[in-house]
Structures are given as structure tokens and as C-alpha cells.
Amino acid sequence: MSIGLLLALLTAAALFGIGLYGALSQTNLVMIMMGVELILGGALLNLVAFWRFLHPGSYPGQMFVLIVMTVMAVEMAVGFGVAIARFRARGSVEMEAARELQG
Amino acid sequence: MTGLLALAPLAPLAAAALILLGRRAAAPLALLGAGASLYGGARLLSSVAAGATASLALPGLPGLPLALTATPLTALLSVLVATIALFVLTYATGYMTEDPERKRFFATMLLFVAAMQTLVLAGDWILLLAAWEVIGLASYLLIGFWHDRPGVPAAATRAFLTTRAADLGLYAAAFLLIGATGTNAITQATHPSGPAALAAGLLLLLAAMGKSAQTPLHGWLQDAMAGPTPVSALLHSATLVAAGAILLIRTAPLLPPAALLAAGLVGGTTTVITGLIAFAERDLKRLLAASTSSQYGLMLLAVGAGYPLAALLLLIAHAAIKSSLFLASGVFQHSRDSTRLDDLRGIAAERPLAYAGFTLAALALAGIPPLSGFLAKDAVIAATLASPRTAAFATLALAGTLLTGAYMGRALHALWHGQPHPRPLAGIGWMIAGLTGLVALAATLALAFPGIRTLLGQPLPETVAAKAAGLSAALTGLALGWLLRPERALGPLLPWAQRGFRIGGGLSALTVKSALTLARACDRTETLLYGGVLAAGRAGMAVARAAQASDDLGLDALIAALARGANRLGARLRTLQSGLIHRELALATAGAALLVASLAIALLAAPAIPPR
Amino acid sequence: MSALQLAFVTFFGLAAVWFALVVFRTSSMMRSALALLFSQTALGALFLALQAEFLGVLQIMMMATEMSIMAIFMVMFMMDPGGLGQMDMTHQKRLSIVAGVVAAAVVAVVAVLTPWGAPATSIPNPSEQLQGLGRELLGRSMLVFETAGITILTAMVAATAVAMPALQRRRER
Amino acid sequence: MSVLAPILALLLLAWCVAVLDAWMTTGRFRPLAPLTATLALVAGESLVPRKPDRLFFETAPILLLLAAVLAAAALPIAPHLVITDLATSALFVNAALAYVLVALLMAGWGPDGAYAMIGGWRFLGQTIAYSMLIVMPITAVAMRAQSLLTTDIVRSQAGLWNVLYQPLGFALFFVAAMAVSFLPPFDLPTASGELAGGVEAEYTGARRAIFRLGRTILIVSLATATTVFYLGGWLGPWLPPWLWSALKTLAVAAAMLAAGHAVPRLREAHLLAWAWKAGIPLAMLNIFLVGVLLLVIP
């Protein structure tokens, strides 16, 4: 059991919690995306920590980090695409009143 | 060897890319691509026949390499696909002469061929799945080729959705097999046993049912006639629809007895029901489509009987026969701008060559010696006779053969009688060239059968009883089809026929109603004119009515009930779906938490992972 | 792991968490976006402290541009980008706090209670890591990595398409 | 020593570049001008605008300076004259340069002024145009060296400098480097004519001095980067390595400063269109060509 691993994992846990709070509590689409970015950042840290402390000789872990970075970029691109479309249509990206998804 | 393996699928793909990049010369490039593919397949077959085996491993997912393999079966199928593709593309050179979108057509056709070659040669489940998906996509693009015509996009979408829904079976089966055996190779050495094998077998059957248009998923195939004729020819004989049967033929050794029984029953039911639909059909191409379902039903029956070789023989014979039928019907369609039997009356005198080809192919399909269809049908019937469930399987097979003769006889009759009104046709030379090649193939393919049997080295029963029963069923069917005059029986249907010129959206209503009315009218004529023969006919009509009724009442009612139930459930769930992002996010979080919790419980309950 | 490295891990970890908190505590959108930027940068520095040099530098590089773009979108789309009106931009606050705290607590408990085993002692040096990662990407995991590339391309095209239609419809009319 | 020497060298080069800049714009050669100008700025009052975002306002010039110095830190002036020898130093240069954008955004937002803010956002648009043109040529350079280590990159050019091996990459990198250091014609964020100084507008006194210093060191860093990546770094006959580096860097900086005076300022829409429709395909072509060359010539 390494104190370094524990520290990294606890940091990741904190980032995850803060990100989750942000994604749930914010009314603005862009702010929600920020929360998601933080959650993904926590995931990244976990991956790097596990690679560093448990399997430093195996590279799929590092590759996985690259994939998560890709996911972050994709999330940004699509999120902003939606934000622009929504802003064009409604003049706001406040999600408080967004009811289009109502079933 | 490995180069040849790569050549078969890559040549059409490269040709497709060149067609898209280049400006002209689409058709020669397409022929070149298909020819190169055929060359690869043929060389492969010859070296495999000499005893060599080849396998081309590609880097795939970690631990799950992708592979193309050449075994006698796969090489043979590859040759089949390439041959049919070459002839159909030759024909299409003429057929598409005046279409401004030729380039797109040929490129998509070649993509289709490339995907089919990959599917046929695939040595592992993942590549097979990928090829399966590309085939679905290509067929969607081709069926919807004339997407600006009314009804075409809907038909393409329906075909795509039906096959996609059934594809889920293949996904589940592939993952189940990979999970159970730990390898993604399609080999018999590592096949699982027990419930996993049964589940995988049934899921494979589901996938094959979707692609091969087996009852109750047969509806989309008739709609798929919205595409250009060469597409139908390729689709029905060697690619999309064949993919289902090929899947089952390739995996037949993996299937447990219960799954085989299910396959046989599904196939037998299909062959009878779609045979009846074909008999009642008034559109030549839709008749051929229903006949395709019926023939693939026979193949599934043979697989179910435990003799995939018989199914393979029928598949090969059917590929040549059905593509020539479609090509001939395409010639008719160009001559009269219609495929309805009423419009095509008397075309025999107008296009004698095409009609001769059509007749030869029809006789072959019905199973008249010495054409290829006879030997194949005979093999299927013999297989059913030799199977442990002779009573059910043989009856269904004979009924299917009888119906094949009946609808082919009817089509021949309809095309023979009537007034010719000839007119010149552009590109007829290319069309006849493709057609002639295929008909010659259909007629003489039987010569290759003994070679195939020794090549594959699988058992095939042979009995005189099967030959006799098959031949008599076929002859009876043909006679029935020729003699039962639909136009005399059509009296009450005349208004329908007139309205039918604008079929519009009511395709299925038209099919169902016309089949019912036709069946009733036939019944009446029968009782009046041919008392003796017709006990069988009446029984057939009864089955037809039962089928329609089950379709109308049973299935429709079931679906309606399902829809109602889903609606009601949906209404309740609506309250959960507030549409507010934050509520939905919160729900998603709760769901994720639930998932993680259940995973954690499973992990804690499972024995601890030993430390490394 | 040396004491110095441990100190760096602690420092950058705390910085990342602190900036993450600032993201949702400040009312200026610009500060919020840049706080996220610095949180991610601290994470990158943490990777460096964990001897994952390539990933750390990559994270630091990518997040700078990515979060700056985030900032301009914030300013474009927020009603009160400067945070001068002191508006409340949150909802279901109690639920969110509970969810965040519970999630973090559960993850932390799992992290503490799991027997992770002895930490690895020999870490490949950075250039070895680069080579190993390169061989991984262009060897075994090539398909996966290429898929990621295609995904990004698809996302770019899709995002552009989503953002476009209004303009096009106007032109067609 | 190992840290001090490169930093001194950096300051010295910055001095020379500042003198050069003044010489080119005013036409007078005054080697002491930087000193007098700095003294004048530091002695002058450093005004703080009304309602600033104080944090950003104060941090921005320092961050700009830091980014420029960090970029230079990974670049070798002589075989052992380099501050940090990371295994990924070529990428690190890039990462450091990304923070120029952050600094300018902060400088634009901080003072609560319209011109400054427009300048900051303009630089964001400019970044989207040039950033790929920085990364992709560096990729081709690293391909030849088979290493991301800047010292290895210099050594890989012993036979033939990269400017001749991949001239296309050099041209793209040179233009992109000018865009990073917002030199004319890419001086959109400061645009003296139309934005009245843009991001610089509200900075006075000591803060402006730091901003100017950061900008000058940025130019030096980029000139050094160009030297290291394309002009063989310290390689050269007769003279000592550090002198070769310094001379090449000054030459590149002079070329950058001179090039801008001849071309009119570009709108960032045009810059974006040019970068994505022509620049990036060309950079791809460059990578491809270098790959082919590497495979053909062992």
C-alpha cells in the first residue's frame, strides 16, 4: 500500500465529487460541461495513478488516458455544437427551462 | 495464397474507390474489380482443392486477431459471389446505360461485393460482424438508390430496420461464443456445449432469419424490389439474402440438435407460406422475391435436416437461377416499363431470347432434370427423408417444391400469352450478355456438383424415392400453375387490378387482400373445373387463409396489444421524463450508482481475485 | 517514491481540488473557466510528479486551448458573464451537494479499503515510456486508437452540422 | 550555473532583439534604448483601470513572461546549455506556448476595457488558426530525429539542416511562430492602429515593462525554436556552439521582425480560412513527404 497512490486516488475522488456536484447543480449548459470535464479529470488521474503504482510496465493504461482525453475533446465539440444551435434557437443556453426532451 | 485471400475482397473495394475518384469509365472499372475478385477466388479454390489451406491474420483488437481463411467451403462461396457479381455487373452495364447516377450505383455495388467476399472468407466473428454490417449498409443504399421516387426510402428503411433488428441476434451470438470459448475464431474445435450453445444457435438462427427473409420477417424482401433490378439479382442470389443461409451453412456444425430443429421448422414454414404468397402475387419481381424467401426456406430446412451440403448445393444453384430470373425480368421491365404480370403479357414473342432464358431458369428452379435445380432440390428432399424428422420435414419440402413449380408455371403462362408490342431498347446487348452467361451457368452447374461433393467431403444421402417424389411434385406444380388461369379467376379482382396501377402506400394491404381474394376465386374455379386434383389445392388455400388470418388477427392483434401496453407504460414513465436536464442528469446519476452498487455486490460475492 | 515527489503530489493534488472548487464558487464566468483550466493544469503537473511525463505535458498542452475555448463560450452564452449581478445560477442544490459528497466519500472509502498491493518500484524512464506507448499505439491497440481518431473527426463534423442548420434554413427560404 | 547561464543568455538575446526592433521601426541604432525605455516605464506611474479583475490584471504579464521563459527552457543553446532536458521537450515547448493564449486572454479580460477584451478574444481565434501549424511541423521534425528531445533534434540535423530537408515545414512553422508571438502581420491582439494597443492598452508603468519583456522573450523563444528545429541549432564550423545558436536566433528574429513590415495585417477570418484550408493540408503533406523520405533514405 503506497501513500502516493492513496493521495492520488483521494484527489481523484474529490475531483469526481466536485464535478458531480457541478454537473447536477448548474443551470447553464456550459457550466454543466465543466462539471463533466472535472469528472473526466478525476478518471484521468485514477488511470495515471494505477499505471504508475501498479502496472508501470504496461502501456494500455497510458493509451486509455489518451482515449479519455479524446472523449473530453469530443464532449467539448458536441456540447458546443449543441450550445450554438440552442443559442440560435432560444437566445440562451440556460437549461432551467429546457423541456424539449420531455417524454 | 495470402495475397489471393486479400485480393478477393480488396479488388472490388479498390475498384469502388477508383470509380468514386474518377470521372468516367465506371462500368469497365466495376467489371475489372469483379473480375479480379473472381480471379482471386478461383485461384484460391484451385489451391484449396489441391489440399492447401490458407489464413491471413490481421492485427485486430488486442488478443482477438482478425483473420481471413480459405477452406474449401469459403473458397467455393467466394467464387460463387464473384461469378454472380461479374455477370450481374455485365448486365448492369446495359441496364444502367441511361442513368445519370451510374457512378454511385457501381461504387455501391462493388462495396456490396467486397463486403460479401469479406463475410464469406472471414475466419473470425468480429470481421464477420463488420462485413455483415457493411452488407446491411450497402443494401440500404442500393434499395434506396432511386431515393427520389415515392415509397423507395420507406422500403429501404424497412429492409434496413428489419435486418438490423435481427442482426442483434448475430451480435449477441458472436459475443456469447467469444465469451464462452475465449477466442474469436470460427472453428469447430472450440465450440461450446450446453445452454450457451443452444442460445448461440438460436441467436444465429434469428440473424439468419432476418437476412434471409424467413417467416415472420419475410415482409421486407418484397418491398426491397424498389431498387434497380441488378440490385435485386445480386441481393437475392449471392449477397444480402444469401448471407443468412451462408451463416447457417458455415456454422451448422456448431449448432445443437434443438437449434437445428428450430431452423428446419422455420425454413419449412417459410417455404410454404412464401410459396403461397408468390403464387398469389401479381407483380413479377415481387413474385420472384417471395420465391426467394421460399427457396431459402428450403435451404434452412436442409440445414435443419442435418445436411448443410444439400443446402449449399441449393444455394449455389439458386444463386445462378434466381439472378438469371431477375435479369430476364429486368429486360422485361425495361421493355414495358413495368413489372406487373398484367403489363408483361405476351412479352415472350417480343423478347424471345430473354424469355427463353427465363424459361430455362424457371424450369431449373422448379427442379426439372437435367438442370441444376433438379439435383439440388433432390438433395434437399433426400436430406429431409434421411433426417430424424422425416414426416414433418419431407412434407414441407415436397409442398415447397410443388409450390415452386406452381408459381413458376403461372409466371411462364402469364408471360407467354398476350399481345406483343415490340420497341427498341438501349443497352440490350450488355443485358443479354449477362443473362446468357448466367442462364448457361444455371443450366450446366449440375456438372460441378459431384466435384463440390468430393471437395467438401460431407455426406449426402441419395434415394430414388427422393428423385421420384421431387420430380413428380415439380411437374404437378408446373401443370397446376400453367392451367389455373389467374385471369379467369381474377373476375372479382378487376377493380383491384385497375387501382393497382397506383400501388401507393398500401403495399401490404394489396398483397394480403389480393392473395385472399385470389385464393377464394381459385377455390371456386377449382371446385367447378378440376374436382379431382384439387383436394391438395384446397388444403393449400386453407393454409394460405390461415396464414393470412394469423397475420391479420394473431400477429396484428399481438402487435396492437404490445403497442397499447407500451403506450400505457410510457404514459406512466412520462412523469419521470420531465425533460429538465438537471432532473435527468440526477436520474442518470442514480442509475449509474445503482449499476456500480450491483457490480460491487457481485464483485464482493465472487471469490477474491488472487494477488499477483 | 521520494519525499519530494510526495510533496509535489500533495501540492498539485490540493491545487487541482482547490481550483475545481473555485470553478463553482466564483460568479465570474471567466474566472470559472480559467479556474477549470488551472485545475486541469495542476492535474497535468500531478502527472509529471507521477513520472508520466508525456501524458502530463500533453494534458497541460491540451487543456490550455480547450479551456480557453470554454471561456469564450461562457462569455458568449451567459447572461451575466462578469458575475456583476450576483445572480444565482444553480438549482437542486441540496441534492447536488449530497450526491457529490456521497460519491466522493464512496470512492474515497473504496480507495482506502482496497488492498492495492505493493507499489511498483521501478518506473520506466520517460523515453522508454514514449517508445512503449508508441509501440502500443501503432501495434496492439492500433484499431482502438484509430477508432478514437475517427470519433474525433465524426464529432467535429457532427458539431459543425448541429451548429449550422439555422443558417442554412434561412438561406433556403 | 546550469540554470543561470541560459537565463542570462536569454536576457542578452532579448536585449539584442529589442534593439533590433527599435532599429527597424525607428531607423536608429541605439544599443542602450531598452535600458532607458525600461527605466522610463518602471519610473512612471502604473495605473490601474476602473473596476478591473484585479487577479487577472496582475497575473497576466507575469504569466506571459513565464510561458515565454518556460518555452525557452526546453530549448538548448549549446549541447549542455539547456535548463531542462525533458524527454518530451519538443512537446513541452508547445505546451508552454499554449499559455501565451491564456495570458493574453487574462490581459484582455482583466482591465475591463473594450479594446483589451476584443484583443484577447481575437488572439483566441488566431490560436485556433496557428496551433495546428505549430504542432504538425514539429511532428515531422521529431519524426526525422526519432525523438522528442530537442538536443536529439539538433543532432539529427548534423548531415543536412531541416530547413533544406523539409522546407515546407519550415515555411509553415515560421509563419505560425510569427502568429504565436503576435508580430505583424498577425498583431491582431495588439493592433496598434485600430485597437489602440489592444491587450496592452491598459497596461502602464512596471506592468507594461513586464509585458514587453515577456513579449520580447517570446520572440526570442520562437526564434530559438526555429533555430533548433530547422537551422541545426548550435551546429556550425569554427565558432563556438553557443555563438552559432545566438547568431542564428538573432537572424531568425530579424527575419521575423522584417517580414511583418512588408505585409498588411490579416483579418482573423482570413487567417483561419487560410490556416485550415491551405496550411493544415500542407502540413499533412509535409509529414507525408518526410515519412516517405525517411523510408526511402535510410
Please characterize this protein's 3D structure.
The complex is a heterotetramer of chains A (103), B (612), C (173) and D (298). With 103 residues, chain A is an all-alpha fold. Chain A has one domain (3-90): Orthogonal Bundle (Helix Hairpins), CATH 1.10.287. Chain A contains 3 helices and no strands. In chain A, helix 1 runs antiparallel to helix 2 (29-53) and helix 2 runs antiparallel to helix 3. Chain A is elongated. Chain B is mostly helical and 612 residues long. Chain B starts with a helix and ends in a 7-residue tail after the last helix. Chain B has 2 domains: 2-483, no CATH class; 488-570, no CATH class. The model of chain C has no long low-confidence stretch (mean pLDDT 84). Chain C is mainly α and 173 residues long. Chain C has helices spanning 3-25, 29-49, 53-77, 93-113, 126-137, 142-163, 165-172. In chain C, helix 1 runs antiparallel to helix 2 and helix 2 (29-49) packs antiparallel against helix 3 (53-77). Chain D contains 12 helices and no strands. The mean pLDDT of chain D is 84. Chain D is mainly alpha-helical and 298 residues long. Helices cover 71% and strands 0% of the residues of chain D. Chains in contact: A-B, A-C, B-C, C-D. Chains A and C meet through helix 1, helix 2 and helix 3 of A and helix 1, helix 2, helix 3, helix 4 and helix 5 of C.
Walk me through the topology:
The complex is a heterotetramer of chains A (103), B (612), C (173) and D (298).
Chain B: H1 2-21, H2 26-49, E1 54-61, E2 64-70, H3 72-95, H4 102-121, H5 125-143, H6 152-181, H7 195-211, H8 219-223, H9 229-237, H10 240-251, H11 257-280, H12 284-305, H13 308-336, H14 347-350, H15 352-366, H16 372-386, H17 390-416, H18 428-444, H19 449-456, H20 464-483, H21 486-489, H22 494-499, H23 507-529, H24 534-574, H25 581-605
Antiparallel strand pairs in B: 1-2
Chain C: H1 3-25, H2 29-49, H3 53-77, H4 93-113, H5 126-137, H6 142-163, H7 165-172
Helix pairs in contact in C: 1-2, 2-3
Chain D: H1 4-26, H2 33-43, H3 54-73, H4 89-109, H5 114-145, H6 150-156, H7 162-165, H8 167-180, H9 192-195, H10 205-230, H11 241-262, H12 268-296
